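Quick board copy: two proteins, each given as sequence then C-alpha cells.
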Amino acid sequence: MRETTEGTGAPGGDRLAQFEEERGRLWAIAYRIMGTVSDADDAVQEAWLRWQAVPAEPPVASPRGYLTTVVSRICYDLLGSARARRETYVGPWLPEPLLDGAGAPLTVGVAGAGRTEGPEDRVTLDESVGMALLTVLERLTPAERTAFILHDVFAVPFPEIARTVGRTPDSVRQLASRARKRVRAEAPRRTVDRAEHRRTVEAFLSAVMGGDLDALLTVLDPEVVWRSDGGGKVSTARRPVLGRDKVARYVRGVVTRGVERGGLRVARADVNGAAGLLFADPASGQAAVLAFTVHDGRITEVDAVVNPDKLGHLDFDRL
C-alpha cells in the first residue's frame, strides 16, 4: 500500500534524482535476492519504470521505503520462476560473480532499524555478498530468502517486508528466523581476516602455477569442496569434487591442460568482496572466476564459475 504525505512530490527531474540516489542500494538488494547480475539489472530497470508511473499527487512519503518494497516485490516474483529453472540446471548452480567487491560496500541507512534481535543476528553487507553465503541462500524458499536479506542485511522492518511477500509481520519474523537458523547451520566456517584470506589464495595460486603438489595439498583443507558451474555450456565437473586429494588432482589437470594449449592468463581480483582469481584460456575461448572460502589458513571451498552466460558482464580482455 502506498504511503503519502504533503509537500514531498517528485515531478520530473526530482523523481529521477530520488531514484538515482537509491539505485545502488536497490541493485544491492536485487543482486542478493536473485544471485544474478542480469536479474538485478532487470529488477532495477522495472522499478524505475514503475516509479515513473506513480502519480505525482498524492506524493510518496518515503521514496526509499516505496522503492525498496517495489524492487523487493519484483525480485520475489521473479525468484519463483528462477528457482524452477535452476532445478533443471546442468550441474551446480552458482551466483554470477562480482569483481572488485562491486555491490558490497553500500550505505543502507541506520543499522538495526526496526530490529529486535541482537548484533549476532545481523549480517554485514560484505558477508551477504560472499559467494559461500549466496550459495546457502539458494536452499531457502523465496519468502525466507527475501525476508532474511531485507531484514538481517538491510534493516527493513517486518511490516514493510510483510507487504512484499504477502504475509503478516509475525509470519515474516518467523521466516527470517528460520532462514537465519539455516544460514548458521549450513554456512561454511570462514576466516574473517582479509589478509589471511588473501595470503591463502596467493599460496594456492603459487602452488598450482608452480606445479607444487605438496604445497597445494598443504593449502587445501582435508574436506575441501570444489564446485564448478558450467551450465552444460563448458566441459567441467557436474558434481562437486570432494576432498583434498581429488581437488588437487582436478585443479592440476585443468591448469595443466590450459598451460599446454599456451597463453593461459591468470589475474588476482576481489570476487564478491574477497580475494579470488580469474583465469582466461584464449586457446579454448574459456574463462573462469574462482571464489574461495578460507578457514584457519586453509581453503575449505572453491566456487568456480565457468558458464560463459554468467561471465558476459566481465571484461577478460584486460587480463
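And the next:
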Amino acid sequence: MPKKQVPMGQLADYLPDATFEPVLAYLNQYKVHLTIAKSRTSVLGDYRHKIDTQHHRISVNGNLNRYAFLITLLHELAHLVTFERHGRRVASHGREWKNNYGQLLAQFIEKKIFPKDIEAELQRSLHNPGASSCSEEGLQRVLYRYDAHKKHYYLVEELPQGTLFALPDGRVFKKGKKRTKRFECTEMKTGKLYLFSPIHEVYAPKEI
C-alpha cells in the first residue's frame, strides 16, 4: 500500500490539538521514520525495528480521525520502546508492551486532550490494553463518533433487523438476529450465514 513520509510541520494536521510537540519529541528521541499510509483494512498502523544504522519505522493510516491516529501512533511507539528495552526477548503484546503502552497513554490522558467519552474508554483499558490498536469495542464505538461520516454508511448495530447492506467487495447481506456478541447476517447471493461485529461499518442505502 502506498505510503508517504509527512514533513514534521504537517504532522500536526493529523493530531489532536496540543499533542504535536510531545509526539515530535518522541519521534526525535527514538529517530523514527514516520510514514502515512492510505486506508488499510487489516491494520491501522505498524512498527518495524531498526536494522544496523536504519531508523525505526512506523506507519499509521492517514484516514483515521485525529484521536484514533494518536492512539494508533502511541500503540506503535510502545512497540518501539519495548524493542529498545528488551529486543526480541519478549512477546509482541506481552506484559512489557502493555506496561509501555499504558504509560504512554497515561501521559496524554493527563493532558486532557481527549473528549470525555474517549478518555473514559482509555481509562478502562489502561491496565490491560488490547493487542490491536483501538481494538476494544467500546473504544472503537466512541472513536467512530469523531469520524467524517460518509452518506449511507452505518455500523451494523445501527441498522434495523432485515436491512440490506453491502461490503466494499460488492457482496450484499441481510442483517439478522444478534447471536451473543455478533450479528448473524445472510449473504443474499449464496444464502450463507456470516457473523458481523456490531461495530463493523457497512454501506446501507435505502435500495441496493
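Board note added afterward: Strands lie at 3-5, 32-37, 45-48, 56-61, 153-155, 164-166, 172-179, 182-187, 193-196, 201-203.
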